[in-house]
Design brief:
single chain, four-stranded antiparallel sheet, 16 strands, 54% strand
Length: 196
């Protein structure tokens, strides 16, 4: 599949599928060998978020699945919201339906990019182009119905990668050197350490 504006790329939890968001669409690919994109094939499965009633988001900047593949969360900049979808068949984006739950993340940030969850699904993190990483607290794991906005801390970064429960590694985009930040929640304050 020829992509024109890819913004995010993720694997399923066991690596048997991968997904790419491009503009307002998330495309789904199958892999015959887990995590080996050389064995991928496009299976004509996709979800176009811009055509979903009550969402109509055309500028996707990130997305994540619940680890069991039964929920999909998409981040867009048309409305600066994260939208929650239910999947009746795990990992199959064509079975996604909008749950009606969303979380507003605009107002005090720049353009949002990427999102990540804590391992237990009670925290949602996202970054923005003003070099902040933000945390939102979810009273019920893996649902946006009762999420609340937390705080942020300044970082020189753009992308968030989950490397374990409540630990996030962020890559710097303005340096050629391999500098990494470790952001770790501690008493609702993000503690930042620099690694090279």
């Amino acid at each position: 599949k020829l992509l024109t504006d890819p913004r995010d790329f993720i694997f399923s939890s066991i690596g048997h599928k991968f997904y790419v968001c491009d503009g307002s669409t998330i495309f789904q690919y199958d892999l015959t060998t887990n995590y080996d994109i050389r064995t991928s094939s496009y299976n004509s499965k996709k979800i176009q978020i811009s055509t979903v009633a009550d969402v109509i988001e055309s500028a996707l900047r990130g997305f994540k699945f619940k680890p069991d593949g039964t929920k999909l969360f998409v981040l867009g900049t048309d409305y600066d919201r994260v939208f929650e979808f239910d999947l009746s068949t795990a990992w199959d984006v064509t079975t996604a339906t909008y749950s009606g739950n969303n979380l507003y993340i605009g107002g005090s940030t720049g353009t949002p990019y990427n999102l990540e969850f804590s391992g237990d699904g009670t925290k949602l993190f996202f970054s923005d182009n003003d070099r902040y990483i933000w945390v939102n607290y979810l009273a019920t794991p893996w649902t946006l119905a009762d999420g609340t906005r937390g705080g942020g801390t300044t970082l020189d970064m753009r992308n968030i990668y989950n490397s374990g429960i409540d630990r996030y590694y962020i890559d710097k985009v303005d340096k050629q050197d391999s500098y990494y930040y470790k952001a770790e929640e501690e008493s609702k304050v993000l503690v930042v350490e620099c690694y090279s």
